[in-house]
Specification:
single chain, 271 residues, mainly alpha, 2 domains, flat
Length: 271
């Protein structure tokens, strides 16, 4: 708001001085002469500057408030500099992870198949290896996203069930309190089952990461068909880990679907 008043004041002062100069010039000129082109251009520029300024003070106040919030959250500059990306839900992240695991398995199979071929061009092998490396990057990125999402579910669940327990403990009626505790314990057990499956899946994800990174490091500086073929057992391990991951994610999804309070948990805000 202060910035708005300063800009307006300076602009009006600038326009006022130009108008005075223009009036003085016109008084000195004969009646049949007009103001010079430079003076007229200056007046027009000043008027354009004023007309370009926002007329709605409320809009400026909102901007000032947003700037204040950004100053108060210096630890999160990205949130102030650009709109936040809409987060995908946990179901979609699990689906995307399964698809990406299938992608890395397919890329590994294709690379191994090419390495075992009787005749192969060097450029073909390089291109297929680059595809494999790209899928490694995609896999690592998706796995990290899934980790963050599942941990968010667990964190939200912990807050939700702790606050639920506090409310139940304050109930004076013993029958209502007992029924509430039974419902809560059932839901909590289901969420704990999800957390358990998520932990097992993360262990298999770590094994997959180790396998694909080992192959990548082994071939990166010594890419030959012979070396690709010699790593056949490591390539097969990728498929084994991928199968365990897909099975684990399927179990995670089943647990969440049994969690009646899932929507309430994810939307819960204690403040």
């Amino acid at each position: 708001m202060k910035r708005f008043l300063v800009v307006v004041s300076v602009s009006f002062l600038f326009l006022f001085l130009i108008l005075i100069a223009s009036s003085s010039a016109q008084m000195d000129l004969p009646q049949n002469e007009t103001v010079s082109g430079e003076e007229e251009s200056a007046v027009i520029q000043a008027e354009d500057a004023l007309s370009a300024m926002p007329e709605d003070e409320e809009e400026l106040d909102i901007t000032a408030e947003e700037e204040k919030q950004c100053e108060e959250t210096k630890d999160e500059p990205v949130a102030c500099s650009q709109p936040q990306e809409q987060k995908r839900d946990v179901y979609e992240e699990m689906t995307q992870t399964v698809l990406q695991v299938e992608n890395i398995s397919r890329a590994a199979d294709e690379l191994l198949k090419l390495g075992k071929a009787k005749t192969i061009e060097e450029q073909q092998l390089k291109d297929k290896f680059r595809e494999f490396e790209q899928e490694i990057e995609n896999t690592l990125s998706q796995i990290e996203t899934l980790r963050k999402t599942t941990r968010h579910v667990s964190t939200q669940g912990e807050i939700f069930f702790n606050d639920w327990l506090k409310e139940l403990e304050s109930i004076k009626n013993s029958t209502m309190r007992r029924r509430g505790m039974t419902s809560r314990d059932k839901e909590l057990k289901t969420l704990s089952g999800f957390d358990g499956e998520a932990q097992k899946t993360e262990e298999n994800l770590n094994k997959l990461i180790e396998a694909i990174q080992d192959i990548d490091r082994y071939l990166k500086f010594n890419l030959t068909a012979k070396n690709v073929s010699s790593a056949a057992s490591e390539f097969r391990k990728i498929n084994t880990d991928a199968g365990k991951i897909k099975k684990g994610i399927g179990s995670m999804e089943k647990k969440l679907k049994k969690l009646s309070a899932f929507s309430e948990i994810m939307n819960y805000n204690k403040y």
